[in-house]
Amino acid sequence: MTEIKDEECSACHKTHIDTRTEIITPPLDSKPGHIRKAIFFRCEDHVNCDADEMEYLSLLKSMNVKQEDLQFDTCASPHDTIGSAVKGVSVTHKPTGTTASYNNEKYQEFNKIRAIQKLKSELNSFNKD
């Protein structure tokens, strides 16, 4: 078992100073209503980040991808209404040109996390080929 004191920040490679359990976006293949918890280790730079931001940065860290390598765009969603913000999200990995989008969630931040989860899956299958 890993000692908590030896863990690095979930978002970067610095030493953590804070540990929190958060409820985060469930995986893509989860059933409706599924709840997932994660333990996030936070350094001084990320101690005030919310759960969505920590999940986003943690996904990037696990993918070994820099923020500047991703381009985000909005796209139509079935949850869009007249006069509301567009909720669907499309993400492109600039170095490979791989694109993933997601628009099934009611909130744009959830769609962003889901799109990155899809991109991670596509990049993993791209690297296996």
Topology of helices and strands:
Blueprint: E1 18-24, E2 36-42, H1 51-63, E3 70-75, E4 88-93, E5 98-102, H2 108-128
Antiparallel strand pairs: 1-2, 3-4, 4-5
Helix pairs in contact: 1-2
Mean pLDDT: 86
Question: What's the total count of β strands?
Answer: 5
Shape category: globular
Strand order, biggest sheet?
Answer: 3-4-5
Task: Indicate the structural class.
Answer: alpha+beta
User: Distance between the terminal alpha carbons, to the nearest Å?
Assistant: 34 Å
Helical proportion?
Answer: 25-40%
Low-confidence segments, given as residue ranges, are none
What Rg, in angstroms, do the CA atoms define? 16 Å
Main pleated-sheet profile? 3 strands, antiparallel
Topology order in helix (H) and strand (E) letters: EEHEEEH
Q: How many helices?
A: 2
* Proportion of residues in extended strands: 15-25%
What do these coordinates show?
The structure is a single chain. A hairpin with a 4-residue loop joins strand 4 and strand 5. Helix content is 26%, strand content 24%. It has 129 residues and is of the alpha+beta class. The longest helix is centred in the last third of the chain and has 21 residues, at 108-128. The protein is globular. The strands form two sheets. The chain has a three-stranded antiparallel beta sheet with strand order 3-4-5. The N and C termini lie far apart (34 Å). It is built from two helices and five strands, in the order ββαβββα. The protein has helices spanning 51-63, 108-128; strands at 18-24, 36-42, 70-75, 88-93, 98-102.
